[in-house]
C-alpha cells in the first residue's frame, strides 16, 4: 500500500479526542512527538496540501520523512502534556526541541514521618517513605494552589525540619494566623498531622466543597461589580481544577526500539561495502558516557540478524581511568569485554573459538577511539576481528589501516543499520550513567537537610561513605566532622531518623550495585 494512501486511511479513523501522536520514518524511528486537544484536527493539518506554501524548510523535511504515525488517546489535555514530555525524553526525536533535557515535571511531596511535616516541591520521586502528588503539567497552577492549601489548612511554610522557638519570634506565618505553629506547642503534633492529612485528601481530589465556595464568592463579587476580585477568584478556581484533576502517570510505554523494514537486505549491503566474508549475523557496538567527569561508564549492545539482542547487552563502570578520557575508557572496555570472552572460551576448551566473538565490532567515534580499541585487540591476539568506527558529525566509517573514511549515502540501508547500533549503544550508556546519578541523588537525602552546603555534605560522605552508614553513626561521631557541632550533629541525626527511607538491607544492596560494575 502506498505511503500516502496508508496515511490517508489512518487519518479518516482518528478520533476527536485529546492525545499524543508519534510521527515515524520508513525505518520505524520516531522522528516527532506532538500533543493535541483534538487528534483528528491536529494530525490532519500536517497533510493539507494547501498549507504547504506556509511551511518552513524544517517542517517540509519532517513531512517528507513521515512514513507512518501512531496515536495514544488520553483523557485530558494535561495528560497529553505529561505523556508528550515522557515520550520525547524516551525517544529524543530529531524534530523535537522542547522537553529534550532531563528536567521533569513538578511533584508535590510531604513526609508524614517528619517531626512537623511540610509540603515541598520536587522533580524527583524517591523511595523515602514520603507521599507524592503529581506530576503536574502546570507548575504555576501548582504553586498557586499550594499557597491556597497552606492558607486554608493553616500549614507551615518555613524551611527548618524542626522549627525552634527562636524561629517562631520572627515567623510571619504564625503572626498572621496562617500557621497553627505546632513548633511552640499551640497545637500538638497529632492535631497538626490531622491538618496535613486533610490537605492530602484535598489534593487527592476531595475538593468539591472548596470549588463550590470559590465559585459562589466569584459570582458574588461579579454581582457587586468587584470585577478585579471576581477575576482573581476565577483564576484561582481554574488553577485549583487543573491541579486536582486526576491524571494518568504513564509508567509503561507501548514502544520499543525501531528496526529496519528489511534487516537481511541491510546486512547484505553492509557486508558488501565492508568487504566482509558474509552478512554479519552478530554485531557488538560500544559507546562511552562520561558527563562532566562524573560516572565514567561504557556500554556494549549486541545485534543479532539486524535486531537488538538485549539479553547480551553489557555495561561497564571504569576501574582504571581517571578524568575525562574517552580513548582510555574505550581501551579498558574493549580489553575487559574480549579478555573475558577468551577466558570463558578457553576455560571450556571449546574448538569453535571464533563463534564466541562477533562478526563485526562497531565503535562510536573516529580514529582515536578506533585506534584505542584496535590496540587492545592486538594485545589479546584478536586483530583479525572486523572492527570499524562510526563518527557522528559526518557519519563517516573509519577502518583499520585505511587513511580515508568511507561515506555512504544517507539512504543507505547499511548506514542506517550502523546508526541504529550506534544510537542504541549511546542510549544504553547514557541510561546507565543517568541511573547512577539518579541513584546517588535518591540515596542522598542530605540535600533536604536545612542549611547543609556542598562542603559539609562532601565531608560527611567522605567520612562515612554512604547515607546508610551515616544513619548508623552516633551524634559524637558526626560532631567530629568539620562544620558540625553538637547541636548540628543532633539535628542531623534526628533528620535521618525521621527520613527512614529504604530498609537498611535494601539500601546497602542498592549501594553495592552502584559501586560494582
Secondary structure class reads alpha+beta
**And the CATH topology of the largest domain?**
Nucleotidyltransferase, domain 5
Provide a count of the helices. 19
Overall tally of structural domains? 4
Strand content is 5-15%
- Computed Rg: 29 Å
Oligomer state equals single chain
* Overall pLDDT level: 78
Main beta sheet: 8 strands, mixed
CATH superfamily of the largest domain: UvrC, RNAse H endonuclease domain
Structure description:
With 517 residues, this protein is of the alpha+beta class. Strands 7, 8, 9, 10, 11, 12, 13 and 14 form an 8-stranded mixed sheet that branches. The chain has a 3-stranded antiparallel sheet with strand order 2-1-3. The longest helix has 31 residues, at 413-443. Mean pLDDT is 78; it is low at 250-259 and 501-517. It has helices at residues 3-11, 39-44, 57-65, 77-91, 139-152, 165-169, 172-175, 189-203, 208-223, 227-244, 263-273, 326-347, 367-379, 413-443, 454-464, 467-472, 475-479, 486-498, 504-515; strands at 19-24, 30-36, 68-73, 106-110, 119-122, 131-136, 282-291, 294-304, 307-308, 314-317, 360-364, 387-391, 396-398, 406-407. It has 4 domains: 3-91, GIY-YIG endonuclease (3-Layer(aba) Sandwich), CATH 3.40.1440.10; 107-244, no CATH class; 263-438, UvrC, RNAse H endonuclease domain (Nucleotidyltransferase, domain 5, 2-Layer Sandwich); 444-515, DNA polymerase, domain 1 (Orthogonal Bundle), CATH 1.10.150. It is built from 19 helices and 14 strands.
Amino acid at each position: 500500500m502506498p505511503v500516502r494512501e496508508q496515511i490517508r486511511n489512518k487519518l479518516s479513523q482518528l478520533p476527536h479526542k485529546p492525545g499524543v501522536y508519534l510521527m515515524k520514518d520508513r525505518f520505524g524511528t520516531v522522528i516527532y512527538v506532538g500533543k493535541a486537544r483534538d487528534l483528528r484536527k491536529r494530525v490532519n493539518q500536517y497533510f493539507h496540501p494547501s498549507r504547504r506554501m506556509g511551511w518552513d524548510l524544517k517542517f517540509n523535511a519532517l513531512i517528507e520523512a513521515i512514513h507512518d504515525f501512531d496515536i495514544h488517546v488520553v483523557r485530558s489535555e494535561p495528560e497529553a502534556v505529561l505523556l508528550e514530555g515522557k515520550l520525547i525524553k524516551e525517544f529524543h526525536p530529531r524534530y523535537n526541541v522542547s522537553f529534550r533535557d532531563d528536567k521533569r515535571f513538578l511533584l508535590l511531596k510531604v513526609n508524614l514521618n517528619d517531626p512537623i511535616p511540610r509540603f515541598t516541591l520536587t522533580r524527583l520521586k524517591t523511595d523515602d517513605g514520603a507521599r507524592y502528588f503529581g506530576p503536574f503539567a502546570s507548575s504555576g497552577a501548582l504553586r498557586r494552589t499550594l499557597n491556597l492549601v497552606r492558607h486554608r489548612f493553616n500549614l507551615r511554610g518555613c524551611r527548618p525540619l524542626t522549627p525552634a522557638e527562636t524561629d517562631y519570634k520572627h515567623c510571619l506565618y504564625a503572626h498572621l494566623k496562617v500557621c497553627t505553629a505546632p513548633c511552640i506547642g499551640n497545637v500538638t503534633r497529632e492535631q497538626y498531622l490531622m491538618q496535613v492529612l486533610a490537605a492530602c485528601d484535598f489534593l487527592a481530589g476531595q475538593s468539591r466543597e472548596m470549588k463550590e465556595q470559590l465559585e459562589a464568592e466569584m459570582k458574588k463579587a461579579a454581582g457587586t461589580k468587584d470585577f478585579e476580585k471576581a477575576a482573581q477568584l476565577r483564576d484561582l478556581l481554574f488553577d485549583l481544577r487543573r491541579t486536582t484533576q486526576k491524571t494518568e502517570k504513564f509508567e509503561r510505554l507501548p514502544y520499543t526500539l525501531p528496526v529496519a523494514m528489511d534487516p537481511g537486505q541491510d546486512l547484505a549491503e553492509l557486508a558488501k561495502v565492508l568487504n566482509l566474508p558474509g552478512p554479519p549475523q552478530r554485531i557488538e557496538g560500544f559507546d562511552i558516557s562520561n558527563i562532566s567527569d562524573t560516572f565514567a561508564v561504557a556500554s556494549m549492545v549486541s545485534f543479532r540478524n539486524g535486531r537488538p539482542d538485549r539479553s547480551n547487552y553489557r555495561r561497564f563502570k571504569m576501574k582504571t581511568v581517571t578524568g575525562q578520557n574517552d580513548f582510555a575508557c574505550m581501551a579498558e572496555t574493549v580489553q575487559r569485554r574480549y579478555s573475558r570472552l577468551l577466558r570463558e572460551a578457553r576455560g571450556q576448551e571449546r574448538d569453535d573459538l571464533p563463534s564466541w566473538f562477533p562478526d563485526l565490532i562497531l565503535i562510536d567515534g573516529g580514529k582515536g577511539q578506533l585506534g584505542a580499541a584496535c590496540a587492545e585487540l592486538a594485545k589479546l591476539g584478536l586483530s583479525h576481528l572486523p572492527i570499524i568506527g562510526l563518527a557522528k558529525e559526518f557519519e563517516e566509517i573509519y577502518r583499520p589501516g585505511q587513511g580515508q573514511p568511507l561515506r555512504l549515502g544517507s539512504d543507505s540501508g547499511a548506514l542506517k543499520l550502523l546508526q541504529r547500533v550506534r544510537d542504541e549503544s549511546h542510549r544504553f550508556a547514557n541510561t546507565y550513567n543517568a541511573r547512577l546519578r539518579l541513584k546517588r541523588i535518591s540515596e542522598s537525602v542530605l540535600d533536604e537537610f536545612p542549611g547543609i552546603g556542598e562542603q559539609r555534605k562532601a565531608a560527611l560522605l567522605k567520612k562515612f561513605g554512604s547515607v546508610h552508614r551515616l544513619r548508623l553513626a552516633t551524634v559524637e561521631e558526626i560532631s567530629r566532622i568539620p562544620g558540625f557541632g553538637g547541636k548540628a550533629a543532633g539535628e542531623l541525626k534526628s533528620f535521618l531518623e525521621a527520613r527512614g527511607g529504604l530498609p537498611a538491607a535494601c539500601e546497602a544492596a542498592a549501594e553495592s550495585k552502584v559501586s560494582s560494575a
